[in-house]
Amino acid sequence: MVDRHNRFSIAAAACGLALTLAAPAHAAGESPWVEDSHSALRLIGGNNASGATSLRAGIQLRLEPGWHTYWRYPGDSGVPPRFSFPGSDNVASVKVLYPAPHAYSDEAGVIIGYKGGVIFPLRVVARDKSKPVTLHLKAEYAICDKLCVPVEAQAQLTLTGATAESDALLASAEAHVPKEISAAAVGLKAHIASDHKVKPLVFVDLKAPTGKPIEIFVEGPTAEWALPIPKPAPGAPAGHQYFGFELDGLPPGVNPRGAYELTFTIVGDGQPVEAKTHLD
């Protein structure tokens, strides 16, 4: 199985050279848009407390109607976005946050990602909180409609403040980032229901109102895992919903009957959440 973090280079090779776009440094609340034929990207800043070491920013990606891009785990096909910040000034670390995705069907199967656009919030830690911070972003992502196009883009932004628009956009995106919560608190249980197959069946029990639309996505302990999307299962009592999936998409040599920690992202009409639980 191909490491999904290598899919971008494979896709780029298959499609020819990726589009490479760049914008100059900018010291307002937003960097200039970096545009290609079907998408555009920019950096945006958020309001930050005076003298804060951890700063708010975001990567805004705009897509043409009908086009989509991918979550950190892309599903059956596609490539996750890759963001790096080489040469950034006065930056100790940058953490990329991922808003809750949705599942979409296309010719290649079911993908997990975003349509229309998405903002990836950033948590930027300054080396010296008394000095300015300038982000130098290098982004690699794929956009897809009936075909997929790999894109490389660069943008720069000095985090000196925010406009009302950029701060509102960033706050909205932050509200859609799944909240980390314990499995017990969200009422999540997962165990192997059938161990008689080559690929064991995993049963998921979630406390949730019957009939409430819910999507669940599951990730393994490392990026090399590519687990299926859990599907609704019948028989749940009132106040619960059942889901199931085959323990498929494990890295070569991994025993499917081992003890592992899985990460579940649960998306409904309220606050999305992320919970970890052991599958023993």
What do you see in this structure?
Strand 19 and strand 20 (273-279) form a beta hairpin. By secondary structure, the chain is mainly β. Residues 1-19 have low confidence and may be disordered. It has three helices and 20 strands.
Helix and strand string, N-terminal first?
Answer: HEEEEEEEEEEEEHEHEEEEEEE
The portion of residues assigned to helices is under 10%
The major β-sheet equals: 5 strands, antiparallel
Report the uncertain regions: 1-19
End-to-end separation:
24 Å
Rounded to an integer in angstroms, the radius of gyration calculated over CA atoms is 20 Å
Strand order of the largest sheet: 2-3-4-10-7
Number of strands: 20
Percent of residues in β-strands: over 45%
Mean pLDDT comes to 88
Structural class: mainly beta
- How would you describe the shape? globular
Q: How large is the count of helical segments?
A: 3
Q: Quick summary of this structure?
A:
This protein is mostly beta strands. The protein contains three helices and 20 strands.
